[in-house]
Amino acid sequence: MKKIPDENGFDFDVIVCGGGPSGVASAIAAARRGMRTLLVERYGFCGGMATAGLVNPWSGHEYPGAHSVKKGSIIGGIFKEVSTLLAEGGGFGSRLTTYAFDDEYLKGVYDRMLAEAGVIVRFHSYLSGARVERGYIKSVHVLSKNGTTAFSARTFIDCSGDGDLAALAGCKFDIGRPEDNLTQAMTTSFRMANVDKEAMYRCETHREARALVEPYFQKALASGELHYPYRNFVHFYDYPRAGVLHFNMTRVSEASGLSPEDLSRAEMEGRRQAFLLAGWLIKNVPCFSHAHLEKVACQVGVRETRHIHGLYTITQQDIVDGRKFEDGVARSTYFIDIHNPKGAQDVHQAVGGRGAVRGGFAPPPGDWYEVPFRCLVTRDCSNLVVPCRALSATHEASAAVRVMATMHALGEAAGIASSEAVRTGGDVVGIPGKWVRAQMPWMETAPEYGAPWNSASLMMGAAEGTATR
Ligand SMILES: Cc1cc2nc3c(=O)[nH]c(=O)nc-3n(C[C@H](O)[C@H](O)[C@H](O)COP(=O)(O)OP(=O)(O)OC[C@H]3O[C@@H](n4cnc5c(N)ncnc54)[C@H](O)[C@@H]3O)c2cc1C
């Protein structure tokens, strides 16, 4: 086997693997603290699910709730900066979905913030291996057109979503739910353009707008005109562009996001469902009669794979109790959103409720829960943190904490802690989570109602009747 050249000494202070919401925030936080920071990303842009997966809108930070008219946020820091830049560029907030964002614009926002922070970004580079000595990562192997290169650092942040680096480094993990290791269903997101949104814009929220389309969908399912056993209610969001709606309605279950065979099947099946549904909408629902399928996500959306064993594992009870922690580094109002590993009825869905969340799956109304820093710290590697979707959580809790606003906050905490480890010459496992929390002052403040959180509502007042975003 060809030997991979390994750098001598520490080339970087911090290496971040994966440039999704958690990875971007991690890298920016570390670089701003003076760390020589490398971000490795397999695509040619950052954003992960938010861009490659076309996932929208931001969730997790909204207070008092996603569907109220007055919007607030319980997450500040880098997430707020990102949202403010999106809002300044007209890429944030739509009439019916306050936290929708323009994913093309987001790519530019992330590029700019990474460059300004001084992060060294290496796109088109795939993490493929790690050299580990006694629970300490020495270097990561990165595959590109030029072959495999090793990069070394003092500390590493796994933001691959799937916990790839942790797994390569020998950390223990679980996959999916305990009884059968099945993971949440995957979804290929897609967008419809040239939709006549006029009638929808007489509604207050996307929920009300969906109700306009729902009767057509239910009738078609009941009559057998549409064979669509994947999702049992209409699920779309408004998007900050004229005539565009974002759909989260395809489903591929019993597929593993770690298996290239399953992923290949999921990509093709997800696209098939997207084309099927878009064609049906165009033919049967009046406001779609001049619409077209504008865009299908360039990768199927994977909701769940590995859960790394961390110093603390967050549980369903923590979410439902709205539990706070001394070392809490993210707060969230997001519910336990389990897209059924088998079948169209979501696990959290009240029977017949078409999207309504049943008891025992959300924090108390008006309250939030926190995610402790210990969920990011692995038990098996002293210089690695995992602030991405693969953090230490049960199947149920993972379904709540995985959302993108939360991921920005956890990434920021990981960047702060890793920098402190480098600065003090120790390992990240030794950084007190309580100290990390203290570096994130918004963790202690009241929910914030100012811009950019209410930019869409402000827009509604300013531009009543127009569909310009
Ligand atoms: C269909 C779907 C709908 C969702 N809906 C919502 C929603 O409405 N609101 C919400 O807030 N959240 C939603 N989520 C959840 C959210 O999108 C993800 O949980 C979140 O993006 C996870 O962030 P992350 O940074 O951990 O990983 P990701 O966003 O997955 O980013 C991981 C990054 O790492 C890169 N990467 C992976 N492996 C490697 C490797 N080996 N080498 C190099 N690079 C690598 C990827 O290319 C990617 O850029 C949804 C998710 C899905 C799948």
UniProtKB/TrEMBL annotation:
Molecular-function GO term, any one: metal ion binding
Record bears the keyword Oxidoreductase: yes
Keywords of this entry: 4Fe-4S, Iron, Iron-sulfur, Metal-binding, Oxidoreductase
Upper taxonomic lineage: Bacteria, Pseudomonadati, Verrucomicrobiota, Opitutia, Opitutales
Name assigned to this protein: FAD-dependent oxidoreductase
Organism: Termitidicoccus mucosus
Domain of life, source organism: Bacteria
Keyword hit for Cell inner membrane: no
